[in-house]
Write a structure and sequence with these properties.
The protein has 2 domains: 8-65, no CATH class; 80-196, no CATH class. Helix content is 17%, strand content 21%. It has helices at residues 8-22, 44-65; strands at 25-26, 32-33, 94-99, 105-110, 125-130, 136-138, 152-157, 163-168, 183-188, 194-196. It has a 4-stranded antiparallel β-sheet, with no helix packed on it. Strands 7-8-9-10 form a 4-stranded antiparallel β-sheet, with no helix packed on it. It has a two-stranded antiparallel sheet with strand order 1-2.
């Protein structure tokens, strides 16, 4: 039996119905409260109404926890971001999504190896998904698309989604990375250029770990 696909409209209907039963206890500003402290003083009819209200809340929470069979089944309600171009959910954990200002792009880190083709490094990577086209790109690769040889995460995205900053222990994302510590990088998703940000003005490598990047809205800083 296929699970019911609950839409925002379905949930809204339940939310609209709830005040009719929750309204037994009004707060002074016109809002609603359950009024559990006065439960024992309510009439039998009011007790039944409160029980109905509680059951309605349980039903609503149950609907929200019903899983979707795949990403496409969630359209119109909640969208699963960590899927490949065809909507298949990734085979590893994904977390910490960040959104561009227009909500077109979502960047996140993932341990999955099947979100894009040829992901064979066995490392945590950073990805960007185009929510309009479904395209998924791996961010944590070199300018020539060489896979990182270490974990990458803690992504930050510019307002238009073009630039993504992240931290990585990989040593092969740029040339000359020999400090053996975590560095900060910025990737241009249009030109594929990647630069290491955690260096001195003269280009000298940092002698200790760098972490927690935060990119500016225009992606320049």
């Amino acid at each position: 039996m296929q699970a019911r696909h609950w839409t925002i409209q379905d949930i809204a209907c339940y939310i609209i119905l709830l005040p009719g039963t929750l309204g037994r206890g009004h707060s002074g500003n016109g809002g609603f409260k359950m009024g559990f402290s006065s439960f024992t003083r309510k009439s039998h009819k009011d007790k039944n109404a409160t029980i109905v209200a509680l059951l309605s809340v349980i039903v609503l929470l149950t609907m929200l926890m019903i899983p979707c069979g795949d990403a496409k089944a969630c359209q119109g309600a909640l969208a699963i971001i960590s899927v490949d171009f065809n909507g298949k959910i990734g085979n590893g954990s994904s977390a910490y999504p960040v959104l561009s200002s227009d909500l077109k792009y979502v960047a996140y880190r993932s341990d999955a190896s099947d979100l894009v083709l040829n992901d064979t490094n066995g490392k945590r990577d950073v990805f960007r998904r185009n929510m309009q086209t479904g395209e998924v790109e791996r961010v944590s690769v070199s300018a020539s698309f060489e896979q990182g040889d270490g974990d990458s995460d803690y992504q930050s995205i510019s307002a238009d989604g073009r630039y993504i900053a992240f931290q990585s222990v990989a040593t092969n994302l740029v040339s000359g990375d020999s400090n053996g510590v975590r560095d900060i990088y910025r990737k241009d998703m249009i030109t594929d250029a990647i630069v290491r940000c955690s260096t001195s003005l003269g280009g000298a490598q940092g002698n200790n770990t760098s972490s927690g990047p935060a990119i500016s809205a225009d992606g320049k800083n």
